[in-house]
Design brief:
The structure is a homodimer. Chain A is mainly alpha-helical and about 160 residues long. Chain A has two domains: about 60 residues, Orthogonal Bundle (Multidrug-efflux Transporter Regulator, Chain: A, Domain 2), CATH 1.10.1660.10; about 70 residues, no CATH class. Helices cover about 50% and strands about 5% of the residues of chain A. Chain A has five helices and three strands, in the order E-H-H-E-E-H-H-H. Chain A has a three-stranded antiparallel beta sheet with strand order 1-3-2. The longest helix of chain A is centred in the middle third of the chain and has 35 residues. Chain A starts with a strand and ends in a 39-residue tail after the last helix. Chain A binds a DNA duplex (30 and 30 nucleotides) through helix 2.
DNA sequence: ATACATCTTGGAGCCGACTCCAAGTCAAAC
DNA sequence: GTTTGACTTGGAGTCGGCTCCAAGATGTAT
C-alpha cells in the first residue's frame, strides 16, 4: 500500500495555514524541505501534515515561531545527542507557559469581576503606601487590585 | 497633601518598560497624554503608573496593544454611553483568553508527557483513518495524540 | 493549440511593536 | 559660562511574521 500524499494546497486546507505561509515556514526552517515531484512541486505526507498541524496549534498559544522549534524536535526524531539540551529547553518553556497561564487566568478573573460588578471601578484610591522604587517583578503580575477581595475562582 | 509625581524615567523603572516604549504608547493612544511641567517634561501620577503597569501586565499575556484598549477602558472611567459595547467586547475577549489558556494547558501536558517518557515519540503511525478535507477547527486544537491516553492533569 | 489551473521562485511590501538617533531645550553644578 | 544630565521631538531603522506580486514551468480539458 502506497502512502497518501498531499499538494501544498491540500496541506494548506488541512492545516488552516496559507500556501505562502507554509512555504515561508519552510524557508525559515520551521518545516523540513519536502520531497518534490518530477515537475518540482512539493509533496507532503501524513508526517508533514502532522507537523504542520502542530505548528498551527502552537501558534494559537501565542508562542513565537522560533520558540516552536524545540517542540517540533521533541515531537518526532529523538536525536540522543541533543536529549539533555532539549530536556532543559522544554522544562524552561514549560515554566514560561505556566506563568503565562496564570497571567491569563488573572485576566479572566479581572474581566469576570468587572462584568459582575458592572465595573464602576474601585479606583486608584491613593491610600496604599506601597510602591518602592524597584522595577516590576514577574511575580508582581498578581497586582490586579480587585482580585485580592475574591476567593479562588476557576474558569468556565 | 500634594500628589506624588514621577518623571518618565521613574515611570519606566517602575513599570519595566523603556522610556521610548512609554512615549510610543502615548503616541498610539494606549496611554493618555500626561500633564507637562513648564519645561515640557512629562509628569506622571499614581493613576498613570497604575495604567502603565496594567499594560505591562497585559503584555505578558501576549495580547496585542490594540486588544488592550478595552481593558484600559474597563479599568478606570466608566463612561455609561459605552457600557453595552464594552461589556460585549470584554465577554468576547474572555472567551478568547479561556481558549488560549486551554491551548496552553495542553502544551504543558504535552511537555510533561514528553519529559516523563523521555520522548522517543509515539510517532505518526499512519493507522488512524481520520483527516477529512476540512480546515483545522478551533476545537481540533486538542489533537495532541499523546494526551488522549492520559487522564485529566493539573498544572504545577 | 490554446486556455485554464496549479504549481514554482525571488523579491517587494506591510503591519505591529518597538528601538535608535540626531538635534535641540532647559536646569543645576562646577 | 560651559559642561553634564534629563528631558523633548521627529523620523528612520529593525525584526518577526506574514502577504502579495510577477514571471515562468508544467498538466489537463476542450
Amino acid at each position: 500500500m502506497i502512502e497518501q500524499t498531499f499538494t501544498i494546497k491540500q496541506t494548506a486546507e488541512l492545516t488552516g495555514l496559507s500556501e505562502d505561509t507554509i512555504r515561508y515556514y519552510e524557508k525559515i526552517k520551521l518545516l523540513p524541505p519536502p520531497d518534490r515531484k518530477d515537475n518540482g512541486h512539493r509533496v507532503y505526507r501524513r508526517k508533514d501534515i502532522h507537523t504542520t498541524k502542530l505548528i498551527s496549534c502552537l501558534k494559537k498559544t501565542g508562542i513565537s515561531l522560533e520558540a516552536m522549534k524545540p517542540f517540533l524536535k521533541a515531537s518526532g526524531n529523538p536525536d540522543p545527542a541533543e536529549y539533555i539540551e532539549l530536556t532543559r529547553t522544554l522544562k524552561n518553556h514549560r515554566e514560561q507557559i505556566v506563568e503565562q497561564i496564570s497571567s491569563l487566568q488573572q485576566l479572566v478573573d479581572f474581566i469576570d469581576v468587572r462584568l459582575e460588578d458592572g465595573f464602576p471601578s474601585g479606583e486608584y484610591s491613593d491610600q496604599n503606601p506601597d510602591d518602592g522604587a524597584k522595577p516590576i517583578s514577574v511575580e508582581e503580575m498578581s497586582y490586579f487590585p480587585q482580585l485580592r477581595k475574591r476567593a479562588n475562582r476557576r474558569i468556565r
